[in-house]
Amino acid sequence: TDLKQRGLLEETLVICGAQDDFWTPEMFAETACRLPRGRLIMYPNRGHGVFITSQFFRDVTAFLRDKDVT
Predict the structure, then answer these.
(1) Contact present, 39 and 63 (Cβ < 8 Å)
(2) Cα(56)–Cα(50) distance, rounded to whole angstroms?
(3) Which of 25, 33, 55, 66 is the most exposed place for a label (fewest CB within 10 A)?
(4) Confidence (pLDDT) at 69
(5) What local confidence, expressed as pLDDT, does residue 1 receive?
């Protein structure tokens, strides 16, 4: 189901590592694309544990403050 048709209005941040062993980069990109206000941050040299990096916390904090994220 396309989430854009379900009325989800909140901006949603999708964060992943391009080297994830469980999900492909394309799956993350499609997830973000299907969200009406989806935003994707993909760390090129990271796997499934992106949440343990300091960059993750900076990006999430910036997103929550509605600033540019890298």
Answers:
(1) yes
(2) 7
(3) 66
(4) 58
(5) 53
- If one counts every other C-beta atom within 10 angstroms of the C-beta of residue 69, the result is 18
| Interatomic CA distance for residues 6 and 34, integer angstroms | 11
Report DSSP state, residue 68: -
Does the pLDDT value for residue 32 go beyond 90? yes
CB 33 within 8 A of CB 4: no
* CA separation, residue 55 to residues 6, 15, 40 (Å): 32, 11, 14
User: Residues with Cβ < 8 Å from 40, sequence gap 6 or more?
Assistant: 14, 15, 16, 28, 29, 32, 33
- What pLDDT is stored for residue 66 in this prediction? 80
Amino acid at 27: M
Q: Residue 64: how many CB atoms within 10 A of its CB?
A: 10
